[in-house]
Amino acid sequence: MEYYENKEHVEKYIRFTPSHDGSFLIDLLVGALPAGSTVLELGMGPGNDFDVLSRSFEVTGSDFSREFLRLNRARNAEADLLHLDARTLVLDTDRTFDGIYSNKALIHLGREALRESFSRQHAVLNDAGLVLHSFWYGEGEEEYSGLRMVKHTEEELTKMLEGPFNVLDIGRHAKMAENDSVYVLARKAD
After folding, report:
1. In the 8-state DSSP scheme, what is residue 3?
2. Which of 61, 73, 93, 135 has the fewest CB atoms within 10 Å, measured from its CB?
3. Average pLDDT over every residue of 111-136
4. How far apart are CA 34 and CA 126, in angstroms?
5. Cβ distance 124 to 152 under 8 Å?
């Protein structure tokens, strides 16, 4: 993940994604989680979704990239931001959240690392907490400029979440092309 520690790579990413936001996904979360709930965003990148999430929730942004965090702190000094590995979710405190959200941030994790992340998300969620994540749809992995991109299907994500979570909604949506993405909304099981 050193790719996003490079200022030029971060600037390139921001230029590539100026109009891409998670409004569709955030609307799903707004419909499922009470206003004012605490939400942890994993992999906030340039902060587009953080800003939209903040209209409805008490949001804590996080990223593994110190460069993205630096940019977000410069843009919003009051923002609650954490340097956090989405795989291990090791927090400096005993904080818990009502919801955890990511928009294509977990696509860099291999399948075992994603399972580990889901397990850690379960641990930092309050009772009946929700997760909402989106991924590229499909099977296999690809590499772009040294970045791993892992694709997932509805069936695979359901199997990964079964047990610790109850899947409430899962389906495809468009990010750059029709049905190129898959989202999953799941509730922490008892």
Report:
1. G
2. 93
3. 96
4. 13
5. no
How far, CA to CA in Å, does 122 sit from each of 64, 102, 126, 183?
19, 15, 8, 18
Predicted TM-score (pTM) of this structure:
0.88
* Contact call for residues 182 and 133 (beta carbons, < 8 A): no
Query: What domains lie within the chain, and their CATH numbers?
Result: 2-188 (3.40.50.150)
Tokens of 18: 């100026």
> Position 124: which residue type?
V
CA separation for the pair 147, 132 (Å, rounded):
23
Cβ-count burial of 91 within 10 angstroms (0-12 exposed, 13-18 middle, 19+ buried)? middle
Q: Tell me the DSSP string of 45-109.
A: TTSHHHHHHTTTSEEEEEES-HHHHHHHHHH-TT-EEEE--TTT---SS---EEEEEEES-GGGS
CB 67 within 8 A of CB 6: yes
- Helix 66-75 vs helix 7-16: crossing angle, to nearest 10: 60
Q: Return the structure tokens found at 97.
A: 């959240």
Query: What integer is the mean pLDDT of 15-28?
Result: 74
Q: Can you read off the two tokens belonging to residue 160?
A: 């990964």
Q: Tokens for 123?
A: 């641990």
